[in-house]
Write a structure and sequence with these properties.
The protein is an alpha/beta fold and about 375 residues long. Helices cover about 25% and strands about 30% of the residues. The chain is built from seven helices and 17 strands. The protein has a seven-stranded mixed sheet, with helices on both faces. Strands 1-5-6-4-3-2 form a six-stranded mixed sheet, with no helix packed on it. A four-stranded antiparallel sheet has the order 9-8-7-10, with helices on one face. A hairpin with a 6-residue loop joins strand 8 and strand 9. Helix 5 packs parallel to helix 6 (about 310-315).
């Protein structure tokens, strides 16, 4: 393998710095744009190369000392070597660039990124793995485990649970989810403070006195439950039957929660809950139904984004307001490229749900 000197020009989504050698992009982890580094090429493809950092020859003023002794070996964090303000700037820029490059969107109405109140000790749960006496996380780009005694981005309660697990006389091989509290075992955000900010942001985006809210990928009703006062009816859809059961336990008469496929249920939910045939003025010029009722739709899909069928179902439903919550700027940009044909993007707000990592949360507010 050969060693090359590079100037890092940018930080790609995922956290690796990008330099160029003879025009070819070279990806180097744990670097910052503007730095001059030596890097060893470890994988070379026709269009790009992967490298490991050997030496920082000229460091960025934004470089800081990582707080975790496992940083650089553990695959969890990508940005502990970067001061927090610059982490935020990188993530904001990555969202904008993805929407412009992949989504082909111009003049993206970007809002400032919302920071996390805590940069460390914010995670309220982690999943560790146990194998042959080793308990911890996977090494970066590997299926090998690294033994972890303490995780600095996790809360004190989670680290106590980790210590208790490690103190057991015998731990079976497998996966262990450690939580700060014992609640319902359904999906919830791991950074409670930013999750609450996210929920409040969506409450502010949704106007009052609406008829129908459809909350797709609703989980246990994280968004729907705080929006009840703004709607006559609320319908939540999720494939996770345990989350739906949790939502039903506190449901009011105006709430309906459906365990099923989002694509299928989106196509059916309008007819089921409208209780009358559509009027002529509710059809668009292309023959599609404008909206089954003045409807707000919230989608919060997994990192894979919306399937083509779900995107088509949204276009058919044609809600007045669409709020898209994403954890993957690339799939968000792909989906918005198609949805933008019918919807106007009002605002794009990144949130830093996961400091020190390359993950980004984004809320996009659209209207018909």
């Amino acid at each position: 393998m050969r060693v090359v000197d590079l100037k890092i020009e940018d930080i790609a989504f995922g956290g690796k710095g990008v330099g160029r050698e003879r025009g070819k992009a070279v990806f180097v982890p744990y670097t910052i744009e503007g730095e001059i580094v030596s890097a060893e090429i470890v994988r070379e493809k026709k269009q790009f190369a992967e490298a490991e950092l050997v030496e920082v020859k000229q460091s960025s003023p934004d470089r800081v000392e990582p707080q975790c002794p496992y940083f650089g070996r553990c695959g969890g964090c990508a940005y502990q070597h970067i001061n927090y303000e610059h982490q935020l700037a990188i993530k904001w820029r990555q969202v904008r660039d993805a929407l412009q490059r992949i989504g082909k969107l111009k003049d993206v109405p970007m809002r400032p990124i919302i920071p996390s109140p805590k940069q460390y000790a914010y995670r309220n749960r982690i999943t560790v793995h146990a194998q042959e006496g080793v308990i911890g996380f996977f090494r970066r780009d590997s299926h090998q485990l690294i033994d972890i005694e303490h995780c600095p981005i996790s809360s004190d309660e989670v680290n106590r649970a980790l210590a208790e697990l490690r103190a057991r006389a015998r731990v079976r091989d497998g996966h262990y989810t450690l939580r700060a509290s014992s609640g319902a075992r359904v999906f919830s955000q791991t950074n409670a403070a930013v999750a609450n900010t996210l929920r409040n942001l969506i409450v502010d985006l949704v106007p009052a006195n609406q008829q129908l809210l459809i909350d797709a990928y609703c989980g246990a009703g994280f968004f729907a439950k705080v929006l009840l006062d703004k709607f006559d009816r609320v319908v939540g859809i999720d494939w996770d039957k345990f989350a739906i059961e949790a939502a039903k336990q506190t449901a009011t008469t105006k709430e309906t929660y459906i365990a099923g496929d989002v694509e299928t249920e989106l196509q059916q939910v309008g007819a089921v809950h409208l209780n009358r045939p559509p009027r002529k003025d509710e059809y668009a010029s292309d023959g599609r139904l404008k909206s089954i009722a003045p409807t707000t739709l919230i989608v919060d899909p997994p990192a894979t984004g919306l399937s083509p069928a779900v995107r088509n179902a949204i276009l058919d439903l044609a809600p007045i307001t669409l709020i898209y919550v994403s954890c993957n700027p690339a799939t968000l940009a792909r989906d918005l490229k198609e949805l933008h044909q019918r919807f106007i993007i009002e605002s794009v707000t990144p949130l830093d749900m996961f400091p020190q990592t390359a993950e980004i949360e984004v809320v996009v507010h659209l209207h018909a």
